[in-house]
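Model the whole thing, not chain by chain.
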Amino acid sequence: MIASRPALVSFPDALHAVLEAVPQAAVVEVALRAARDRVLAQPAFASDDIVPFARAAMDGFAVYSSDGHGPLTVAAPAFAGSGDAAHARGTATPIATGAALPDGADAVVCDEDSVVNGSVVSFVVSPGAGDHIFPTGEDARSGDLLLAPCRVLSAGDLALLAAAGFVRVSVFRRPRVAVLCTGDELVDIATAPGRGQVRDSNGVMLSAAAEECGAEVVCEQVVADDLASIEDALRAAFSTCDVILTTGGASRGPRDLVKEACERIGVRFAFTGVAMKPARPTAFGVLGNKGVFVLPGNPAAAFVAWHALARPYVTAAAMRKPVRGRRGTLAAAVRGKTGRCVFVLCELRTATPGSLVAVPLQNQCSSLVRNASRARALIAVPLGTKELPAGAPVDIEVLDGSDA
Ligand code: AMP
Ligand code: MG
């Protein structure tokens, strides 16, 4: 047991210390097909016009617009995929959508406006220059910036990069995360718990949450409340991972050994407790440029500590944008607590379109895993605030990033 640890730090100081410790993300190359949901590390420029030739936008006839209604002699057809074709004045070249416009032609008349009579065609419209043509470089010109760094790549982005010829792309390496759930009472979710045992629900919660913000979870493990076992698990995790999330054993009881195990393997703590409720025993430390979060075991407390402190770190390590608080109002009064910043788990309602209302969960007890499922948002009652009344304007952190 460690006899004395520094006093609690304020929540803002804790968050500041956490964010200061975020290491610079490395850059890796991945195949384009594997780049969805990855964060682009370098600007992507077009090395050519996209597409580098003018194309027919409709099935029809390529013409000189100055040849007017016709009748024109039907020439050999131009299909998509065929290369340069020449086009003679006084003729109409049958053309398929996407085919390169034959040299000289400056308009396409669509089939619907064409009347074919044997080897000649006339038109019911007067073609204008540029009609039904996709011009050269319509999507992008050579040298254009296609995508800026730090963009989280979508399926549509991959399409654009494919069109520009990117076979591989440079993305930020995902932070590798280990989740270690400590507790002699924990059993695997596939095991029926005996008396005194509970299923490990924090493991899957934190792994899924870490993946949601761009991490790669490489290890999720239950560890006994035993100093040597915790030390071994921490050492193994530090050897392969960038971030370690532990739960349980974070307080000061005789079986609360995680902080001691961390110190024994050389972790330097930035703080070992935070003036917050719930999750006061939350600690954060570093070993080299790797971070470890010691989170409480109670599921709703671990959930709050994840969102309030660990998630901002993992999100920044993944080079993703932080979740922005949204302004809204509070549906019911919530009380503060002397000396602490109180986090309140809430459901969400939209009163009128665009206006968000946070509805505090009735029972904020940190042992309730159900609260982690119910909560869609988190609000904070800052240190020194006795109460936020019903209707008060508040900053709402929407947990799943959606609108409501
Ligand atoms: P501790 O922080 O170790 O004192 O644990 C506090 C409470 O959280 C206890 O009731 C534990 O059984 C429970 N708990 C700890 N770890 C987990 C976990 N991984 N999944 C679900 N409940 C847990
Ligand atoms: Mg315990």
